[in-house]
Automatic annotation (TrEMBL):
GO terms for cellular component: ATP-binding cassette (ABC) transporter complex. It holds the Pfam family TOBE_3. The lineage of its organism: Bacteria, Pseudomonadati, Pseudomonadota, Gammaproteobacteria, Oceanospirillales. Residues 3-243 form the ABC transporter domain. The gene is cysA. This is Sulfate ABC transporter ATP-binding protein. Keywords: ATP-binding, Cell membrane, Membrane, Nucleotide-binding, Sulfate transport, Translocase, Transport. Coiled coil: none annotated.
């Protein structure tokens, strides 16, 4: 089921003074898994609740919500064929796992309700998919948080919704279980081919799970793109900074040289103030400066855990610390240690004028 939002806005408070969502459009394709990502208060939950029909959008502008060809703007939540999963497992505590999953089917009006044989088959199939068949007779209190959330997933899918909406579904769980549940969701999604929208403020979760991510801030959509495109080509400074660590290089450009205290870097930019951004993996380190890059730094912390070594750098010319990630081989070659004085070499940097983002490969490394 595709979802089409057109001119959807939401204001709260007396006289609608507080804007939760600016008028926005959004198109979600059939079968997509979409992450709504943004800081607290950016409007993710409001948007999800409006798609669900738990919240009405503003009347002015008069927006529209279509599920496929069907205009559901005025339709009650129970008629939208939606499944929900929330952060706090809303399982019925006095019912077994089996009964929790079967519940939505057993309370359907008699004429629509599947036969009891079919209900049984459907519930077993779902429990099998989330590998909880053996625990069908248990009560929620006898399950771990991750298992409870798998029951929630199975329960929300029992009614074969066209659209599955999830609000911070794994927020209350520890990192390892979250990881596992993401795989469950992705797997169920691909196998059953419904359309899903989930809310998260966790960028890693959004990037790992989504086909496309909707990045929000302040009630607006900043960018909608695949995880790869978001990371490679962020539309603006907000998206760049929200999606990962960012090092700032602020200074003044004169005749193709950016200067900041005793640091300087050749840049092909017009004269004037600049604030360039660099990802940690775009900062290389060496024992000598280059003709085109003289950025003296001191190592203040080293964390050699994981696939790469994270190195924190400070300098008088820097208002805040920089983070560089280097390969273990380079870490050993440079025999890095705390207090060591080195030179940072930007491999690449990014520049945002709000309309025209640009990434530049640095001449510093090439020039040698
Ligand atoms: N029922 C409400 N009444 C008044 N203001 C509300 C209501 N619900 C949300 N808001 C406001 O609307 C804005 C968007 O809230 P929303 O819950 O959609 O953000 P969010 O991105 O989901 O945040 P979080 O990650 O913290 O849940 C916030 O400023 C919030 O205070």
């Amino acid at each position: 089921m595709s979802i089409h939002l057109e001119n959807i806005a939401k204001h709260y408070g007396r006289g609608g003074r507080h804007q939760a969502l600016a008028p926005l459009d959004l198109d979600i394709q059939q079968g997509e898994l979409i992450g709504l990502l943004g800081p607290s208060g950016s409007g993710k939950t409001t948007l999800l609740r409006i798609i669900a029909g738990l919240e009405a959008p503003d009347h002015k502008p008069a927006g529209r919500i279509l599920f496929g060809e069907r205009d559901v703007t005025q339709l009650h939540v129970r008629d939208r064929r939606i499944g929900f999963v929330f952060q706090h497992y809303a399982l019925f505590r006095h019912m077994t796992v089996y009964d929790n999953v079967a519940f939505g089917l057993t309370v359907m009006p008699r004429r629509q309700r599947p036969s009891s044989g079919e209900i049984r088959a459907r519930v077993h199939r779902l429990l099998e998919m989330v590998q909880l068949e053996k625990l069908a007779g248990r009560y929620p209190a006898q399950l771990s948080g991750g298992q409870q959330q798998r029951v929630s997933l199975a329960r929300s899918l029992a009614l074969r919704p066209d659209v599955l909406l999830l609000d911070e579904p794994f927020g209350a769980l520890d990192a390892k279980v979250r990881q596992e549940l993401r795989r469950w969701l992705r797997h169920l999604h691909d196998e059953l081919n419904f359309t899903s929208v989930f809310v998260t403020h966790d960028q890693e979760e959004a990037l790992e799970l989504s086909d496309r991510v909707v990045v929000m801030s302040d009630g607006r959509i900043e960018q909608i793109d695949t995880p790869e495109a978001l990371y490679r080509a962020p539309a603006n400074r907000f998206v760049f900074k929200f999606l990962g660590d960012a090092n700032h290089l602020e200074g003044e450009v004169r005749d193709g040289v950016l200067t900041c205290g005793d640091a300087r870097l050749d840049v092909d930019l017009p004269d004037g103030p600049e604030d360039l951004l660099l990802r940690p993996h775009e900062v290389a380190l060496d024992t000598a400066p280059r003709e085109s890059a003289h950025l003296p730094v001191t190592v203040t912390a080293i964390s050699p855990v994981g696939a790469e070594v994270r190195v924190e750098l400070a300098a008088d010319w820097l208002p805040g610390p920089w983070l560089a990630t280097v390969r273990h081989a380079d870490f050993e070659r440079l025999t890095l240690s705390r207090g060591q004085r080195l030179f940072a070499l930007p491999r690449r940097w990014h520049r945002f004028e709000d309309s025209a983002p640009a990434a530049h490969d640095s001449a510093a490394l090439l020039a040698g």
